[in-house]
Design brief:
Helix content is 1%, strand content 41%. The protein has 485 residues and is mostly beta strands. It has three domains: 70-188, Immunoglobulin-like, CATH 2.60.40; 198-357, Cupredoxins -  blue copper proteins (Immunoglobulin-like, Sandwich); 365-484, Cupredoxins -  blue copper proteins (Immunoglobulin-like, Sandwich). The chain has a six-stranded mixed sheet with strand order 12-9-14-19-16-17, with no helix packed on it. Strands 13-21-20-15-18 form a five-stranded mixed sheet, with no helix packed on it. It is globular, with a radius of gyration of 22 Å. The structure holds CU-O-CU linkage (C2O) and copper (II) ion (CU).
């Protein structure tokens, strides 16, 4: 039933099949295979769904350290943040900030980040967008690439900052991302393919004043499935619309806005009053510039947009939740010297970005042609019909999954079909895949039989997560694992 890491016939780690029992209980199952013990953890505050942590007698990839060009230190704590003048909330933070500090490094650098955990719960950090080429041990997946970092413990992450672009970091444990454990990670290009004068991060997230916990969402004839709690609003760079974050520009400038959807359950539609946007990067990767008026951004995705500052005043940068469950978020684009009061919103047009509009700037030579392996992945809820408390990939809910074995050097094609009515932003660790003509690490698969074809080359041996970036889908099972040596 389980594989022991020591078993000669199969040294690959395997997720244990086991029965799920009440949260918070440590349990041992399937010892027949040689003593693998899976445990469930409950966050110390008693509220974190623990499904994302597996631990036990694992063999983890060996961390390797070298000579970093840059060092950072991050402390994980609890603390208070102010989302509007009279509104503060206690949450979990990196270096006392939400979003966490902007880590900015240059192309080609090796970075070392020491993470000190001052929470009473276990944590890890995943560097979303980093290839971790040859550094599976730094991927931050508890129970797979490292043991979780315990209270008062430290873990030293070190990796090559590649590829360039707009990336981010976040906890990979339970609902800690939803609690605010996230921040931007920017790898600056030596020679960007577009011209701009300045750049600025714009981070979208839901505002949740209650504890993050799975809620059963009733979909009438479609049964019920696990989903997110009711949100209280939208934060842009940590601010509610009543006290928006301001991006100052000088007339005549070109500004590169780096959009990140760090939300846990919401796809946002982004637009800027009075300004068209030139989309220049998707998930950090350079694309041929395409001019649009709006784009949708799923959880985990990044789009960079260059704006020509040619209409003075104060303008709204709007993030509208596609499911209309809570008010839109906003930031303000403010021209220096402008005396306008309220930010204006004036829609500019109807051009909406589609994945098919994106074309990678660098050639994708190794991913062309016929795949060596084709894998069908069906996304759905646990039950064929009716009520379910799980989200599944090919009918399996993590951690009760049979990992997918691939081989080094293969060109793998994933054909993902969404049998559910909900969108699923699917993220692959350790690789970028081709979607239409662009290289991405996260792609939203639309609901109601929406499909995506993702091609990648298996050039980075290790154990890599593939999961939905909706925290509530992920925590109820929508995770698979690719393994190769
Ligand atoms: Cu940004 Cu496995 O996630
Ligand atoms: Cu999902």
């Amino acid at each position: 039933m389980t594989n022991s890491p020591n078993s000669p016939s199969d040294s690959t780690r395997r997720v244990t099949r086991r029965t799920v029992v009440g949260a918070g209980l440590a349990l041992a199952t399937g010892l027949s295979g040689g003593g693998y013990v899976a445990r469930r953890y409950l966050g110390a505050d008693g509220s974190d769904n623990p499904r994302s942590i597996l631990d036990g007698e694992q063999s983890y990839p060996e961390p390797e350290y070298g000579n970093p060009d840059r060092k950072h230190h991050l402390t994980v704590t609890r603390g208070e943040i102010e989302v509007a003048p009279s509104e503060t909330i206690e949450t979990w933070l990196y270096d006392g900030q939400y979003p966490g500090p902007e880590l900015r490094v240059r192309e080609g650098e090796r970075v070392r980040i020491t993470v000190h955990n001052e929470l009473s719960a276990e944590t890890t950090i995943h560097w979303h967008g980093m290839r971790q080429f040859g550094s599976n041990a730094m991927d931050g997946v508890p129970g797979i690439t490292q043991p979780a970092i315990g209270p008062d413990e430290e873990f030293v992450y070190e990796f090559d900052a590649a590829p360039t672009g707009t990336h981010w970091y976040h906890s990979h444990v339970g609902f800690q991302l939803e609690r605010g454990l996230l921040g931007p990670l920017i790898v600056e290009e030596d020679e960007p393919h577009v011209e701009y004068d300045r750049d600025h991060m714009v981070i979208l997230d839901e505002y949740l004043t209650s504890e993050p916990a799975v809620r059963s969402v009733d979909r009438g004839m479609m049964g019920s499935f696990p989903g997110s709690p009711e949100y209280d609003g939208t934060l842009v760079n940590g601010k509610l619309p009543s006290d928006p974050h301001v991006v100052s520009v000088e007339a005549g400038e070109r500004i590169r806005l780096r959009f990140l959807n760090a939300g846990s359950a919401t796809t946002y539609r982004v637009s800027i009053g009075g300004h068209a946007m030139q989309i220049t990067h998707a998930d950090g990767q350079a694309v041929e510039p395409v001019t649009v008026d709006t784009f949708d951004i799923g959880m985990g995705e990044r789009f960079d947009a260059v704006i020509e500052a040619n209409r003075s005043g104060r303008w709204e940068i709007r993030a509208h939740p596609l499911d209309d469950r809570m008010p839109a978020g906003r930031a303000v684009l403010r021209y220096n010297g402008s005396t306008a009061d309220d930010p204006r919103y004036e829609s500019v047009g109807m051009r909406q970005l589609e994945y098919g509009d994106l074309t990678a700037v660098s050639p994708l030579d190794r991913i062309d042609g016929t795949p060596d392996r084709r894998i069908d992945l069906n996304l759905s809820t646990g039950g064929m019909m009716g009520d379910s408390d799980e989200w599944t990939i090919n009918g399996q809910a993590y951690p009760n999954v049979d990992p997918i074995r691939i081989k080094e050097g293969e060109h793998v094609r994933l054909h993902v079909v969404n049998h559910s009515p909900m969108r699923h932003p699917m993220h692959l660790h350790g690789h970028h895949f081709v979607v239409d003509g662009a290289l991405q690490d996260t792609v939203t698969v639309p609901g109601h039989m929406g499909q995506q074809t993702l091609d990648f080359v298996a050039d980075n041996p290790g154990d890599w997560f593939f999961h939905c970036h909706n925290s509530y889908h992920m925590e109820t099972g929508m995770i698979q694992l690719f393994e190769y040596k």
